[in-house]
Amino acid sequence: MPELPEVESLAGFLRERAVGRTILGVDVVAIQALKTFDPPVTALGGLTVTGVARHGKFLDLDCDGLHLVIHLARAGWLRWRDDLSAAKPVRPGKGPLAVRVRLAPDDEGLAPGFELTEAGTQKRLAVYVTKNPDEIPNVATLGPDPLADSFTVEALKRIIGGNRTQIKGLLRDQKVIAGIGNAYSDEVLHAAKMSPFKIAATLTDAQIADLHEAIVTTLRDAVERAHGLAAKDLKAEKKSGLRVHNRAGQPCDVCGDTIREVSFADSSLQYCPTCQTGGKPLADRRLSKLLK
Ligand SMILES: [Zn+2]
């Protein structure tokens, strides 16, 4: 799933390639992906892409004041196409293609664009056409951006203060902090040497400062590594940069201990016992439930 660093990089990628270009048309193949109907998606035709922004994990293309907002969800991706002029017309079907955005040809006659694809059967990719991105409920309720200057240790202390949830869940909650998902919450907690099940409210001031440092450093490093990469290379870069996430069974880079995993119904987390839990493996809740 693309998280803050990948979406930031996609925003930069589109800023370089799409800004200044006119939209020829937006073809919605997966009709369930389109979450708004007024203004219609056809209203984007003829408008020029004037800016690209990121809100949490949302991509926001400003097209002369009308916004095309994209949430790639768990299995969605953006694929840039240098020339769509010979592409076949899109047809609703079972394939991964959800939306195609066609841009006007350049001087060389190439008509680039990009496609939003979504793998798997669970379709969660979401596209919105709106004059005001803040009217999208999941954008309006986003917590602070961890790369913003206002995201200080004090700000994190206010967020955490009295919160009785486990720190892993808190980091992933978009209403609390925007942009961190399953992968980078694992990475942040490993960098902070903190158990994913630690209750937020029990963190000391020193631990909150460490957690803040881990959040900012982990995300900034990932943004830096992803900077300037083509959209197609982002997934591999994300994978190669991860130290614990999806690396169960492999040795920890920091201490050499074996990275472990806790599985849930529809996700899993990975951590290093030596770095994060005093050497003790965490109970696998799904397993312990079965054993009862
Ligand atoms: Zn370790």
Automatic annotation (TrEMBL):
Residues 243-277 form the FPG-type domain. Its cofactor is Zn(2+). It comes from the Bacteria. InterPro entries: FPG_cat, FPG_N, H2TH_FPG, Ribosomal_uS13-like_H2TH, Znf_DNA_glyclase/AP_lyase, Znf_FPG/IleRS. Keywords: DNA damage, DNA repair, DNA-binding, Glycosidase, Hydrolase, Lyase, Metal-binding, Multifunctional enzyme, Zinc, Zinc-finger. The keyword Nucleus does not apply. Residues 2-93 form the Formamidopyrimidine-DNA glycosylase catalytic domain. Gene3D superfamilies: 1.10.8.50, MutM-like, N-terminal (3.20.190.10). It catalyses: Hydrolysis of DNA containing ring-opened 7-methylguanine residues, releasing 2,6-diamino-4-hydroxy-5-(N-methyl)formamidopyrimidine. The keyword Metal-binding applies. Belongs to the FPG family. This is Fpg/Nei family DNA glycosylase. It comes from Nonomuraea monospora.
